Amino acid sequence: MNKANRLYSNIHIRNTMYTVTGVGVIANAFLLLVHISLHITGHRPKPTDLPIGLLALIHLAILLINGFIASDIFIPGGRWDDLTCKLLIYLHRLMRGFSICATCLLSVLQAITLSPRSSCLARFKHKSSLHNLCFLLFLWVIYSLFSSHLFISIAATPNWTSDNFMYITESCSFIPMTFFLRHSLSTLLTFREVSFIGIMAFSNGYMVALLCRHKRQSQHLHSTSPSPVSSPELRATQTILLLMSCFVVMSILDSIVSYARITLKDDPIFYCIQILVTHSYALFSPLVFICTAKRIIVIFRYMWEKTVNISVCSGE
What we know:
Layout: H1 5-8, H2 11-40, H3 49-74, H4 82-114, H5 129-145, H6 150-153, E1 154-156, E2 166-167, E3 172-174, H7 179-220, H8 231-263, H9 268-292, H10 294-315
Antiparallel strand pairs: 1-3, 2-3
Helix pairs in contact: 2-3, 2-9, 3-4, 3-9, 4-5, 4-7, 4-8, 7-8, 8-9
């Protein structure tokens, strides 16, 4: 099966893939270290700190696994066995599922944080990080149950050439499935994605409604009383809304590229584009958090000034 042979010599796709992976690993590692340092130094934790830290850790794992997958696409010679294919691809899908669940939790927590005291969501404001972690694990278990079919549908690529096997890497392929099984799995997976995106859309719509109401109150009432929505909450909400919009756009593009793969006879070029699309969120999200979080900007500025001072002193 030689569908990927043309990718070995495609320098532009290979360099883009490794650049995205490298930048994403550095950004997520930095974001994770910042949250660990904030926890160690005793800063007051926010409800969204746990999912943001977990997102950085999950995306770091996703990008590292993607590096192994990319090596089997762009570096000729290596061959994985059947068990390695199943474990790596399944682990990659589980980490992607964890990312979606953490993003969903982040959206819900910010909606709860932004909700007024009279709202029915106010009673969830003082839940501990342990409750949030349990809810995240509950979402992940539900999401993972829909991915268990990968242990059956993924196998090491056979030595003979066949157009019925869908390309994953040079060593791994999707086993051909019957029409009924393929469409049943597609229906279940679509239901899973729509359910999680629906939760995020509902929480985002709720946040937008609260922000619009707050804006109308600020413009028409001209009240001198303290604002029910503080500036840090506004910034955090705008950041999360930006992330959710990015996530939805990436999901739509992923679906379009997946459909293109099926209709255009599983072109491996489209598969590489799909990998870049699906991993762009893992690259984009830490950069957004780093650039918008005031605490992280202060820490980054301090580290930069310290590095400059050390270099100046060593030069003298």
